[in-house]
Fold each of these.
Amino acid sequence: MDSLSDNDPIEVSLGKRGGAPVFRGTRIPISYLSQYLNHGYTVEDFIEQYDIDPDLVREVYRRKFSDQDERGRHVSA
């Protein structure tokens, strides 16, 4: 199953990471960002660690995690 739109920052494909959601155009699972956030790191820390488009990471964060994180909850992928 592929993502609904080419503009979607998250890609799901059985050929990449067994269908786990990844950042579009990469093999980096969204769950990695979730793990970073849960361990007290920031989105900027994640961007520094991985060779990935910063705008892509920020868009995924905004769509998936910002509400949960702002309320002080653990985030999940």
Amino acid sequence: MDTQSVKTAGAVPARGQGPDPSRRNVSRKRGIFTDALGLILTIVVTAASLSDNSHGIQLLDQVHVAHSGISMAWVDRGC
């Protein structure tokens, strides 16, 4: 499980993006959840203004719905 901020183009609607406090630009944040082999199981894209904790909760909720057999996840503490 990991998140990354991605700078957005000018044509992206304002409601789909937000200021990234750490990078000082307007962007989106994408979160991915992979299995032990690195295969992507779930992707969530939100405004970058959403905190990593909130983004992680959304990502884990999506994983639980799509892959209910998963019982453990490894994450870093972020920065």
Amino acid sequence: MAEVLPAERDLRRVIGDGESVPDGEVDGLADHDLVELYRSLVLLRTYDERSVVYHRQGRIGTYAIYWNHEAMQAGSVYALSDDDWIFPSYRESAIGLLRGMPASTVLSWWRGHPAGWWNPADYNVASICVPIGTHVPHAAGLAWGKRLRGENACAIAYFGDGATSEGSFHEGANFAAVMRAPLVLFCNNNGWAISTPVEVQTRAETLADKAVGYGMPAVRVDGLDILAVYEATHEAVARARAGEGPTFVEAVSYRAAPHATADDPKAYIDLARVEEEKKRECVGRYEGYLRRAGILTDEMAESIRAEAEQAMRDGIAAAEAEPPADPGLLFEHAYVDPPASFETDLAELRRSWARTWAAPEVSSVRPRACGTRSGRSAASTPRSPRPGSSAPPSGSAWPASAPSARCSTTRSATRRSTS
């Protein structure tokens, strides 16, 4: 059970420091579970670090870094069942990997390619939400629907500290509380909404205090402690399944990486604090816990890292092997009955496209019924087991340095974000 630290405003922590602070344990987690949590951490860390390299090589667009946020994602997802729904923000863009989503799908999303679309029902993972907090009402609505249908599933919505200043968060949280929707509101409080510190956003001592106004319980956890995150989420999920309504989880950390690849945090962040936080980053901290417990060996750690590295190599190769996107998709899905001007507009776009890339030869704009879309169907993208039950293949290590930048086959739109 996690230790509650009154001096840190009731922050919960399980993992010690290997010296003066002893390690704790979490009920219900066997050695196998502890190793699978480590596998998830390494997979997420590898995806994030490789994605930064791919961005620098010009192979993906602007990328929202989540380095040192992996414990929040892996710990909370492990507390869910496969029937539960995940509503990610852009900071959790790769969370689908923990549900068996191919790395190529997420990489294609960052490349702005239609291969990055997926059917949410295939993985019970909603589309990545870039507008701040707008997915909270969606998650509340889905959770309420599950309750009305008498289903045992719940939902979890991820958002940053900046989202708690948005009206969408208030609407979703209040609705979930009033309707006793089985929802976990998971707040990644890394202290910064891009360059806005959390103390400028609110007069509340903690973001968990906001839950009082909605009549729901809240818990604060060390966001770098995967076991504390798992335990808090597991308890919140149990409350949800019991019909007791939503729970607010505030996972506390300090952002130790740029907000995104387009951000230069040196202008506003405490660089000395960043260096201190890097010394206790979540993957190494949990690895130390497993080694002190005699669970993780050098051979196991190397094998798990190699699996993740090869998964990323395969993912970027598959993403780059996708044919260029059909520019007609921009027009096909705008109207059921497209106006006549679309024909000339699309023709001009193709001419412009051809001057930059070789545009594919496709038919003219076609009317399309409402609710249909191009891309892979549920039948062509079956849901895979979570990484713990079917490990990806092993492979070689990362390249030592990035080659010179080159253009990708498609360009990604720059996305505006505030958390």
